[in-house]
Amino acid sequence: MQEIKEKHTVAIVGAGLAGSEAAWQLAERGHAVRLFEMRPVRMTAAHKTGECAELVCSNSFKSRSVENAHGLL
């Protein structure tokens, strides 16, 4: 991957697993990051906490196999 020498401020909407990982990776590379998340101000039925990076879609396929997250939970 080509290194970007110019630093930017990056806005990321959503502090789930992907958004939190993207924010962390960008910050590690020296970019300023603004991470926006609706919780805890607004919750949905899928959310159990007001915290970032909550695993909310682990049961999407309803599999109980130990080869996926839902089966491990």
In short:
With 73 residues, this protein is of the alpha+beta class. The protein has 2 helices and 2 strands.
How would the blueprint of this fold be written?
Layout: E1 9-13, H1 17-28, E2 32-36, H2 69-72
Parallel strand pairs: 1-2
**Counting H and I runs of at least 4 residues, what is the number of helices?**
2
Record field, number of beta strands: 2
Number of domains: 1
User: Which regions contain 5 or more consecutive residues with pLDDT less than 50?
Assistant: none
Strand content: 5-15%
What structural category do the secondary elements indicate? alpha+beta
The rounded distance between the terminal residues' Cα atoms is 35 Å
Largest sheet: 2 strands, parallel
Mind telling me the C-alpha Rg? 16 Å
Described by the principal axes of the CA atoms, the overall outline is flat
Give the helix level as a range of percent: 10-25%
User: What pattern of helices and strands is seen along the backbone?
Assistant: EHEH
Mean pLDDT value: 76
> Strands across the major sheet, in which order?
1-2
Main attributes?
alpha+beta; flat; two-stranded parallel ribbon; 2 helices; 73 residues; 14% strand
Structural account:
This protein has one domain. The chain has a two-stranded parallel sheet. It contains 2 helices and 2 strands; from the N terminus they run βαβα. The protein is of the alpha+beta class and 73 residues long. It is flat and about 45 Å long. It has helices at residues 17-28, 69-72; strands at 9-13, 32-36. Strand 1 (9-13), helix 1 and strand 2 (32-36) form a beta-alpha-beta unit.
